[in-house]
Design goal:
Radius of gyration of chain B: 13 Å
Shape of chain B: globular
Number of helices of chain A: 0
Low-confidence stretches of chain A: none
Number of strands of chain A: 11
Helix content of chain B: under 10%
Oligomer: heterodimer
Mean pLDDT of chain B: 96
Chain lengths: ~110, ~120
């Protein structure tokens, strides 16, 4: 099974900051990676797929990058609505695994 | 717009079977390339993929749950199902049904989730 590791587990930042979350896969997954945002008590929301493709309707301040085993999610200028938990997920070979999550809170 | 809604018992006794239904509107379960799946989230913890089923009833499951889980679908009622056998307290979680529009799109649509508690 492919294991996904996110870092950091928690991240404190201020409005307007640029932040980056990293996701590492235990083996190469090409670009078969998605990123989600989740708020308490709600379903996750798809932000990025295929490592860098922005889902329709997602603000352009969200960006994804990487391939192989290392990936990033960058938020260019934090807005109030962005404070949430973020998950990466691979979908190589029709099997899915999520990272453990990164909680982004207000400094 | 595709909409998903979970239903089923919210309290299950240890050693018994958890059964949930996902009702789908806005799309057909026979839609080519769609993946219909289940994901769960224990209270205060992260997301865990359970498995999915395709329009052709091909299934894939999380290896850690494979011996206890079955996902099936019924096209005539636009519903798909989750059964999880021999549950323990560790299976207490918010269970989401979800849909990926293809094998490389990520999970595009989610239900609101159903909290299932395993307790005697």
């Amino acid at each position: 099974d492919i294991h996904m590791t996110q870092s950091p587990s928690t991240l404190s930042a201020s409005l307007g900051d640029r932040v980056t979350i990293t996701c590492r896969a235990s083996q190469s997954i090409s670009n078969w990676l998605a990123w989600y945002q989740q708020k308490p008590g709600k379903a996750p929301k798809l932000l990025i797929y295929d490592a860098s493709s922005l889902q329709s309707g997602v603000p352009s301040r969200f960006g994804g990058g990487g391939s192989g085993t290392e990936f990033t999610l960058t938020i260019s200028s934090l807005q109030p609505d962005d404070f949430a938990t973020y998950y990466c997920q691979h979908y190589k070979n029709d099997l899915y695994t999520f990272g453990q999550g990164t909680k982004l809170d207000i400094k | 717009q595709l909409h998903l809604q979970e239903s089923g018992p919210r309290l299950v006794k240890p050693s018994e079977t958890l059964s949930l239904t996902c009702s789908v509107s806005g799309a057909s379960l026979t839609s080519n390339s769609y993946y219909w799946g289940w994901i769960r989230q224990p209270p205060g913890k992260g997301l865990e993929w359970i498995g999915f089923i395709t329009y052709s009833e091909r299934t894939n499951y999380n290896s850690s749950l494979e011996s206890r889980v079955t996902i099936s679908l019924e096209t005539s009622t636009s519903q798909f199902y989750l059964t999880l056998n021999s549950v323990t307290a560790a299976d207490t979680a918010l269970y989401f049904c979800a849909c990926a529009l293809g094998p490389t799109t990520g999970i595009d649509y989610w239900g609101q989730g159903a909290l299932v508690t395993v307790s005697s």
